[in-house]
Design goal:
Helix content: 25-40%
Bound molecules: 6-O-phosphono-beta-D-fructofuranose
Shape: elongated
Structural class: alpha/beta
Strand order of the largest sheet: 3-2-1-6-7-12-13
Distance between the termini: 61 Å
Number of strands: 13
Largest sheet: 7 strands, mixed
Length: about 375
């Protein structure tokens, strides 16, 4: 047995770089002679110690992390519906929510863990904060492709997702130009438009609609017509999944399911339906969906995940709990988890990102 036992879990939607982080934690813990328990499927492995996905909870070895630096996903598994305060169980044929946070606390103590490295986005950090208030020693690590968690300049996974969007837009430019079409690309971004805006700037899109700016259809049509008049009868529009017209609601895939995040789908199709009757051009819609969450992390995300993993181990060593590792370029610093979740992170109206988009003629539907 090592000199200390710590836990590591990945929670929320997966993203490129999680495995790079797991590797860094195991490699940085090894010279300290610590044992690192890989907790399966977010908090599920801590709620139920017998919980069994492919591997079950297990002490991570060099062999586990030997070849995972470049692999997407997470070898620990994850879940975005594993809130111990609202744990969904079947009772008498019905789905009901129960609070299993005390059981999770007991298991944490029974395992003799000195702390947990808790990797997650906004929702997961809110749960981590509440478990911290119950006495669990937590070091948070930010992870979100939407970039909707505060307290850090970037989390890993975001830049790889932007690369995926950019390469899709590059391809769609080719076919849009060949066929004289309006190509609509729906990207992730439930409440925050960072992915859409970065994708629009990197891919040279002509229109970009984000959740923070309810759109009007007239300026979007005007932009497409202006391009036609300039001899450019094709356009690319990037639409965040959470974008909605002024006075309208976002597009959902179906009715809400208890214990699950509502599924967003259809913002791109809706824009196509709104545009087509007013245009002589065909429109086509591409939904990038979960393609954006997978794939090998790019070099930025590998390096950031590695730096975060090392910093998280060092924070446990110092007993620096209730805080989250964070990038304040160029440094890695610690911020209270409470501060990171205090205010949802959104594209601010005054942001230089929006300024740059407007300045190069990206139509935001305002
Ligand atoms: O939170 C990240 C995110 O990728 C959102 O942009 C998206 O709405 C959601 O996850 C999709 O989650 P799921 O994997 O449950 O479909």
């Amino acid at each position: 047995m090592g000199s200390r036992r710590i836990g590591l879990l990945t929670a929320g939607g997966d993203c490129p770089g999680l495995n790079a982080l797991i590797r860094a934690v195991v490699l940085a813990a090894a010279p300290r002679r610590w044992d690192v328990l890989g907790i399966e499927d977010a908090t599920n492995g801590l709620v139920d110690l017998e919980y069994h996905r492919p591997l079950g909870n297990h002490w991570l070895t060099f062999d586990d992390v030997e070849d995972i630096l470049a692999r997407g996903g997470t070898i620990l598994g994850t879940s975005n519906k594993s809130d111990p305060f609202h744990y969904v169980v079947q009772r008498d044929g019905h789905r009901v929510e129960v609070d299993v946070s005390d059981r999770m606390m007991e298991n944490y103590r029974a395992l003799g863990l000195e702390g947990i490295i808790w990797v997650g986005g906004d929702g997961s950090m809110r749960i981590a904060q509440r478990m911290g208030e119950k006495g669990m020693h937590i070091v948070g690590v930010p992870k979100t492709i939407d970039l909707d968690l505060g307290g850090t300049d970037y989390s890993f996974g975001f830049h790889t997702a932007v690369e995926t969007i950019t390469s899709a837009v590059d391809r769609l430019q080719d076919t849009a130009e060949s066929h004289d079409r309006v190509m609509i690309v729906e990207v992730m971004g439930r409440d925050a438009g960072f992915l859409a805006l970065h994708g629009a700037l990197a891919g040279g899109a002509h229109i970009c609609l984000i959740p923070e700016l309810p759109y009007r259809i007239e300026p979007v049509l005007a932009k497409i017509r202006e391009r036609c008049n300039d001899g450019l009868p094709y356009s690319i529009a990037i639409v965040a999944e959470g974008a909605a017209p002024a006075g309208g609601a976002p597009s959902y895939a179906g009715p809400p399911v208890p214990g699950e995040m509502p599924k967003l789908l259809g913002a791109g199709a809706r824009l196509g339906t709104e545009l087509e009757p007013h245009l002589d051009l065909d429109t086509r819609v591409t939904v990038l969906g979960h393609v954006q969450r997978g794939g090998s992390p790019n070099q930025f995300d590998r390096i950031l995940a590695t730096r975060f993993g090392v910093a998280a181990v060092e924070a446990i060593e110092r007993g620096d709990f209730g805080r989250m590792v964070s990038l304040r370029t160029p440094d890695i610093v610690m911020v209270p988890i409470s501060e990171a979740i205090a205010k949802p992170r959104r594209v601010e109206p005054s942001s230089s990102l929006l300024h740059a988009a407007r300045s190069v003629g990206v139509e935001l539907g305002e």
